[in-house]
């Protein structure tokens, strides 16, 4: 039997083997696996501080299609005195490559509270290692942020959920972590946090309680849920078998972000609240028609933009009133 192409040889037993000459050399890049040092991120934080008027206390990460819920680019409606800094202009920052992620940091005030919002997050599937996806969280911490509100678009796996529901994240399952991929992988710098951070109280109990009260005040409690989120590496959506496995282990909503950001935030002792917008139904049966797609994800973000803006704004106000004494 002849080899099918020049890169494949046949050994003496007739089995195919790969020709060694064609294989790429893999070089381990230390910086890639270990992340930027405290000092490098301090430079980034100092650069930002030299540009902005407010010192943010709360950081908001806008999920897919949600960055414009405060108007494209400026967050003008709700972030007062907004100052936008494109990621390209920030030293050591990655850039956004996904549609629905504008790629700007917006500084200003919501309900009088100094905030920074990320209009666009970074995902593993874009090619960034997890530590780099989470770099902005550490920069926020160095800027003085003590509370993180992470929003995301997610597929609803819980059969009781509807498209357009908002899920308060009660907990997560770190599927990528099971495979050894963690934003805290590599040497630990105690100035950020401990080597072995606990995660059993990752999503602040008081914040979740407040969010449920606020949902009642805004009369949206019928669309607000509470559940377990998981992040997969993406960029493909899930197979039916994968979804059924996730359902079995107690997952309510599936996405491709947030978990690593939350781990990074808890490592550096930030209070965390996370909210999933259910943008599509996870198709967990071979008999069901339809397919997940990013356009639908972005469309549902638009439909819910007013509610999201009101909900997150009220949460910013109420979380700040809570002060720093509550249990994290
Ligand atoms: O998690 P966010 O960034 O909100 O976006 C979610 O939606 C996108 C897929 O449509 C993926 O990026 C997934 O992570
Ligand atoms: N993995 C995943 N991410 C999403 N983001 C929005 N919808 C989905 C989904 O169904 N699956």
3D structure, described in words:
The protein has ten helices and eleven strands. The longest helix has 18 residues, at 305-322. By secondary structure, it is of the alpha/beta class. The strands form two sheets. It has a five-stranded mixed beta barrel, surrounded by four helices. Helix 2 crosses helix 4 (135-143) and helix 6 crosses helix 10 (305-322). The protein has a single domain (40-322), classed as 3-Layer(aba) Sandwich (Rossmann fold), CATH 3.40.50.1580. The chain has helices at 30-34, 38-51, 130-133, 135-143, 175-178, 205-217, 240-248, 259-267, 294-303, 305-322, and strands spanning 8-10, 16-18, 58-62, 80-86, 104-110, 113-119, 147-156, 166-173, 224-231, 253-255, 271-281. The chain is 29% helix and 22% strand. Helix 7 (240-248) links the parallel strand 9 (224-231) and strand 10. The chain is globular. Bound molecules: 1-O-phosphono-alpha-D-ribofuranose and guanine. 1-O-phosphono-alpha-D-ribofuranose is lined by residues 63-64, 98, 121, 123, 152-153, 234, 255-257, 294, 297.
CATH architecture assignment: 3-Layer(aba) Sandwich
CATH topology: Rossmann fold
Say which molecules are bound, naming each kind only once. Answer: 1-O-phosphono-alpha-D-ribofuranose, guanine
Q: Give unreliable regions as ranges.
A: 1-32
N- to C-terminal separation?
A: 66 Å
Radius of gyration from the CA trace? 21 Å
In what order do the strands lie side by side in the largest sheet? 7-10-9-8-11
Under CATH at level 1, the class stands as Alpha Beta
Approximate shape: globular
Helix content: 25-40%
